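Run log // design_07
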């Protein structure tokens, strides 16, 4: 009876593992060019350890002045890859985060997931996988989640964005040495709608004014110990 019960549970588990493996391989094929570019950059100029790493979708990738915006930090690493999802970040947590041994990782992802039809709970599950993958090898690394931003072009998804932000914030309240950074509320106008002046013409990606707002919000959340570590 025990053997039969074990076998009945093993089959769904094996199916889930196979599915996860297939999804990972598909993601590797999709992001082959971006991953290869990161590997080449590391060969040419390996980033120092113990830095502050930003990872996520195009909002991070397009933050080309990230290091200049936080000059007080000892090392700033940008590992954003446009169009990526929270699931993608979880697949490549070791390659895009763990290998650099950062003291602090900030992740922005989730709105592409919702745009593709994933649920807030699925985004949370993928963020939990990402956080677990980082903590498994870097137990002392701080993890910050930058909330999903309210883009005018995706205004119809605002309810799902709020739900996703809320459940991830609740999850982080129970995760030691972690933090939820709210950019959602400051990016809404008094009418409760996304502030269009913070976005490029596509009403999806941030313009300079949007990044200045993010710099002020995120800078206030960087621990003083990180700022003091700068030479």
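design_07 sequence
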């Amino acid at each position: 009876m025990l053997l039969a019960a074990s076998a009945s549970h093993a089959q769904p588990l094996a199916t889930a593992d196979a599915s996860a493996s297939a999804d990972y391989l598909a993601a590797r094929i999709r992001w082959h060019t971006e991953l290869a570019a990161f590997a080449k950059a590391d060969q040419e100029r390996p980033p120092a350890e113990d830095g502050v790493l930003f990872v996520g979708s195009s909002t991070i990738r397009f933050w080309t002045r990230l290091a200049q915006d936080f000059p007080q930090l000892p090392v700033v690493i940008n590992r954003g890859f446009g169009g990526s999802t929270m699931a993608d970040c979880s697949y490549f947590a070791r390659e895009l985060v763990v290998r650099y041994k950062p003291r602090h990782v900030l992740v922005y992802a989730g709105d592409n997931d919702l745009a593709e039809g994933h649920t807030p709970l699925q985004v949370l599950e993928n963020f939990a996988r990402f956080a677990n993958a980082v903590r498994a090898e870097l137990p002392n690394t701080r993890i910050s989640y930058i909330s999903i931003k309210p883009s005018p072009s995706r205004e119809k998804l605002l309810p799902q964005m709020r739900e996703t932000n809320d459940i991830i914030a609740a999850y982080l309240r129970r995760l030691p040495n972690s933090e939820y950074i709210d950019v959602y509320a400051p990016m809404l106008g008094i009418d409760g709608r996304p502030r269009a002046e913070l976005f490029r013409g596509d009403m999806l990606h941030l313009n300079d004014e949007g990044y200045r707002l993010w710099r002020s919000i995120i800078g206030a959340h960087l621990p003083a110990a990180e700022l003091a570590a700068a030479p």
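The domain at 50-71+84-228 is CATH 3.40.50.1110 (Rossmann fold).
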